[in-house]
Structures are given as C-alpha cells and as structure tokens.
Design brief:
By secondary structure, the protein is of the alpha/beta class. The chain is 32% helix and 21% strand. Strands 3-2-5-7-8-9 form a 6-stranded parallel sheet. Strands 1-4-6 form a 3-stranded parallel sheet. Strands 10-13 form a two-stranded antiparallel sheet.
Amino acid sequence: MYLCSMIFYFSGTGNTRWAAERLAALTGERLVGIANELRNDVCEYELSHGERLGFCFPVHGWQPPGIVRRFLRRACFRFTTLPYTYALVTCGDSIGLTMEMFDKCLQAKGLHLDSEFSLTMPESYVCLPFMYTDKPEREQEKISLSGNALEQYGKMIVMQQRGERHTVRGWTPWLMSHVIGSYFNHRMISDRKFTVDADACVHCGRCAQVCPTGDLVFENGLPHWKHDDSCTCCLACYHHCPRHAINYGKITRRRGQYYFGHE
C-alpha cells in the first residue's frame, strides 16, 4: 500500500510518461505506473490530509483509455478528507468529453476532479486514413509548448488551485466522445490486426519489451499477440520496431513511426 501524494500514469509511446515525469519533478509526487499496478492482486492506496492525487494518461478516441478505467474499478483509495484530485491528459488535438467521463469513474470511488489539464503532444495514432505522425519540426514545437504549459500546471497543482480547466474539448465534444469515440473504443481497440513481416523482423524483442500490458510473446523467434483483450492499441510495438516489421492491417505500411525520444 502506498502512503503519499501520487501520480498514477499510463503511457504507450512515451508522451504521457514524459509529461508525468516532468510533473512529478515539479510537484514532488510519487509516480505509479497503472499497467504495473494492474498486475498486483490488490490495488490499495491511502492518502493523508493535504496530499494530492493525480492521474496522467493519453486520450484514446476522445475517451479515457480502457486500461485506466479498469484500474479505477479495481483501485481502493482510503482518505479521511477528500484529496485534491486532478487529471492531465495528452492528445493529438482535442479531448472531447474525456474529463467528464473520467470524473464519473472517480465519483464511483468517492472522488471528484478539482482541476483538469491537457497537453497537445506529437501524434502517434496512425491507424486511420487521415492520421499521420507529425513532421519533426511540428513534434519539437508541440513538445516545447507542452513543456512550458507543464511549468504553469505544476504551480497550480502545488497550490492546489481548484476549478482550473486548461483543456481543448473541440467543436463537437459530445459527438466525438459518445458516437465516434464509443465506436472506436468498442470496435478498434484490439490486437487482431497486428501482423509481423517475418523477412524484416530481426528478432530483437523490443516490441515485447515496450508493450505496457505484456500482450506480446515470442514463438519461433517472432512476436505473437495473445488476443486476450489486454491490448490497448497504443501502438508501442509498431512505433518501436527498428525495422518497421510490425503493422496494423495494411494502412500502417506506409506510415511513419514515433515514440518520445526517438532518433
């Protein structure tokens, strides 16, 4: 059981991990990986008076990722007074009603969001016809702007400022989250379309190493996906492959790769 101010985070290609690490350095909070916590038999946490509770995660289809929601269903938070609770999400552009949906998950645990923040980070989802990775100049621009924003967000969090809403919901948030987002999260979060080009694979095992949920195993020197609903479709395996041997269907064969800190 943890006893301290905490930031729970989930990250696939590293954008959110970078943001969470920067935020923890600014606030002095302890980082706790959601994917690792879900491997434990018990997820129990105790907060004392005055401590803070933070959550950092990427937006998946204008909704909170399924893995984050699964964690909240299992987690038990113990506190005598309501902790200052905030969420910071990373996205490619807008977040729709992600925060409203996440706040409902928190309310089931007796918590609520006091403040919410979003960062526009380099694009990593490339499984739709109109979605591509950013050009290097745009990547650096987004990271620089997000770094500046984090400095301000960190100060607000340390001061426990309530009612802060620094997010971009977009023009049609209800449509994006409840219609398009619902279809995306129910039909497109799957490992069924992942394939590996055996001739290009160099058997380095990096894809399995970076998978946050342990969905990849090696058989006969090649990666295989478990098809057990653990995949979050974060594309970490695809983006980290040094030979572009992994693809999601046919569409990613001509798409770029990105992970935070890539060369």
